[in-house]
Design goal:
Shape of chain A: extended
CATH topology of the largest domain in chain A: Arc Repressor Mutant, subunit A
Order of helices and strands of chain A: HHEHHEEHHHH
Number of strands of chain A: 3
Largest interface: A-B, 68 and 69 residues
Largest sheet of chain A: 3 strands, antiparallel
Number of domains of chain A: 2
Number of helices of chain A: 8
CATH architecture of the largest domain in chain A: Orthogonal Bundle
Strand content of chain A: 5-15%
CATH class of the largest domain in chain A: Mainly Alpha
Distance between the termini of chain A: 57 Å
Oligomer: homodimer
Chain lengths: 184, 184
DNA sequence: ATAAACTTTCAGAAACTTCTGAAACTTTAT
DNA sequence: ATAAAGTTTCAGAAGTTTCTGAAAGTTTAT
């Protein structure tokens, strides 16, 4: 590994835990993404100086996140690993996987609690707040799925638009006035 | 605590660790948000059955995330705590704080690495990939800040628009054709 | 100045997560 | 059938985080 690759790998290891996986899994991901050649498990273990067992678990986890895929190289006995897609695809997968882990269970619980009968007077009030949280999380979920379906090019257009989004919204209110609600 | 509040508090405790803070901090946040009355530290410790010391640390952390604020009740000696704002504000704070912890350090590192001289031939190649990651993260950052500045009402309009966003983008390409790039 | 009411800090205990390496397993070639 | 090449699993060691509770600190009232 060149010094640049080493720095990146170490950093992604440290950040890994903040992004939902552990240090070695983060390092492995960085290494696989930055290498042009497919990598074998043993090469990863050697490069990162971690045990072969840990490597195996890490590869399994990265596959469960659908961030890497196996690639069979003809004439070779062992399996090789490559990124599961472009940077854009990988970022999306991380997003989606985290949504599943961080938001979906809460949405389920909130829906259940909203169906419960209020046992005390201020429960109705509590349920109102839970409802508010639910709606917000649901909007975020719907919205992030929407962005994923847009694909990278359109998203890029949208992002380059930046603060123009507000203007576009106004535009839309004028062009399609019957559809949205009539606020501000 | 009524059964509904108890369920919500326990759940937010479990999710807490996925959202960037620990179990008790998650529970404390849920409790404070769902209570209409300001709560004192001792009341929180009693309700959640945790030590007074842990409560103190948790309150400090929630304040560092700017999710709760102290509120002095006249005639009372102790401090009381209330949410720092509406659900919308709180969600935004969590988002922003996580951006600071999860994305900003990586952006800094990537910028530094891109300035390094390529030491080996394929470093140029690696730097290209790092650049791609950098641009993606930067777009996400800029975009999320944009959404925050829109405020809840406009964001809501945008969210209700849902799959209409694609259509609006096309619309914009037709109405303001000189500005964006001319893709697909 | 003293005491009462309250908060913060911090050392170490408890709980949890991650990592290793050896043993068990699978696949392929001969 | 056997051996060689490779992978997976898992018990326990190492490391990390979280929590408690007692001691130190702060503020306010008298």
């Amino acid at each position: 590994m060149t010094p640049i690759v080493t720095s990146a790998v170490l950093h992604f290891g440290e950040m890994g835990s903040r992004w939902g996986f552990n240090r070695t899994v983060g390092q492995m991901l960085a290494l696989i993404v930055l290498n042009d050649e497919p990598l074998a498990a043993q090469e990863i273990a050697d490069a990162l100086n971690i045990s072969r067992g840990n490597t195996s678990m890490g590869l399994k986890e990265l596959q469960s996140w659908r961030l890497i895929k196996q690639q069979h190289v003809p004439g070779e006995r062992k399996e090789f690993f490559v990124p599961a897609g472009s940077i854009w695809v990988l970022a999306n997968r991380v997003f989606e996987e985290r949504r599943k882990r961080e938001i979906d269970p809460t949405l389920t619980l909130l829906r259940d609690l909203m169906l419960d009968d209020p046992a005390h007077e201020n429960d109705a009030q509590v349920q109102h707040k839970l409802n508010e949280i639910h709606d917000l999380l649901e909007s975020v979920t719907a919205w992030s799925q929407e962005l994923q379906h847009l694909g990278p090019e359109k998203l890029n257009t949208l992002m380059k638009l930046g603060s123009g989004v507000g203007r576009i919204l106004d535009l839309k209110d004028r062009v399609l006035p019957t559809k949205g609600e009539s606020q501000s």
